[in-house]
């Protein structure tokens, strides 16, 4: 009988007191993150989360970091390959070659290496700038327009004060679509 009372107490306190208290606290402290940081398209429909990378492969979009889990949130994982593993080096070399990287025009490391989760939504400022020429050519835009767009979207690490160094790829591509539609 004591175990049954304990079970009822735990279910009630955790399910009906603790959980709503934590969700309420999150809604007050971080309202956007507590609802998944969903981004909406012009039609008002959700198109993705600011917190999770999405796969962009077309030349007219900025590309995110590579993903060891093919951008599948249910299988989030790093590659588990050590930095000395030849498979990791071969994959990085193939990605660098697909971007047209050369010794005179080296590719930023974040564009050839997956994050620990495989779902990092941000690239470095250098990674975004590295892709400007390709995207400008594919969209028929001026590179200066894209550099301005990147500057507007970039932010410091964790949103703290400092120089902007991160760019959210989904936000950048949405702004890119708006810029192209306005032309």
Automatic annotation (TrEMBL):
<keyword id="KW-0812">Transmembrane</keyword>
<protein>
    <recommendedName>
        <fullName>Potassium-transporting ATPase KdpC subunit</fullName>
    </recommendedName>
</protein>
<comment type="function">
    <text>Part of the high-affinity ATP-driven potassium transport (or Kdp) system, which catalyzes the hydrolysis of ATP coupled with the electrogenic transport of potassium into the cytoplasm. This subunit acts as a catalytic chaperone that increases the ATP-binding affinity of the ATP-hydrolyzing subunit KdpB by the formation of a transient KdpB/KdpC/ATP ternary complex.</text>
</comment>
<dbReference type="InterPro" id="IPR003820">
    <property type="entry name" value="KdpC"/>
</dbReference>
<keyword id="KW-0630">Potassium</keyword>
<keyword id="KW-0547">Nucleotide-binding</keyword>
<keyword id="KW-1003">Cell membrane</keyword>
<keyword id="KW-1133">Transmembrane helix</keyword>
<keyword id="KW-0633">Potassium transport</keyword>
<keyword id="KW-0813">Transport</keyword>
<comment type="similarity">
    <text>Belongs to the KdpC family.</text>
</comment>
<keyword id="KW-0406">Ion transport</keyword>
<keyword id="KW-0067">ATP-binding</keyword>
<dbReference type="Pfam" id="PF02669">
    <property type="entry name" value="KdpC"/>
</dbReference>
<keyword id="KW-0472">Membrane</keyword>
<comment type="subunit">
    <text>The system is composed of three essential subunits: KdpA, KdpB and KdpC.</text>
</comment>
């Amino acid at each position: 009988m004591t175990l049954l009372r304990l079970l009822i107490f735990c279910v009630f306190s955790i399910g009906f007191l603790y959980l709503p208290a934590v969700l309420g606290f999150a809604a007050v402290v971080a309202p956007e993150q507590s609802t998944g940081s969903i981004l909406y398209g012009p039609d008002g429909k959700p198109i993705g989360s600011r917190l999770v990378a999405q796969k962009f492969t077309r030349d007219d979009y900025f590309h995110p970091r590579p993903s060891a889990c093919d951008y599948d949130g249910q299988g989030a994982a790093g590659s588990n390959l050590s930095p000395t593993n030849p498979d990791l080096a071969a994959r990085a070399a193939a990605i660098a070659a697909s971007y047209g990287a050369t010794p005179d025009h080296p590719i930023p490391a974040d564009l050839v290496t997956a994050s620990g989760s495989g779902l990092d939504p941000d690239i470095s400022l250098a990674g975004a700038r590295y892709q400007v020429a390709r995207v400008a050519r594919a969209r028929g835009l001026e590179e200066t327009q894209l550099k301005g767009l990147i500057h507007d979207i970039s932010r410091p690490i964790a949103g703290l004060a400092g120089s902007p160094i991160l760019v959210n790829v989904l936000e950048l591509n949405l702004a890119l679509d708006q810029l192209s539609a306005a032309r």
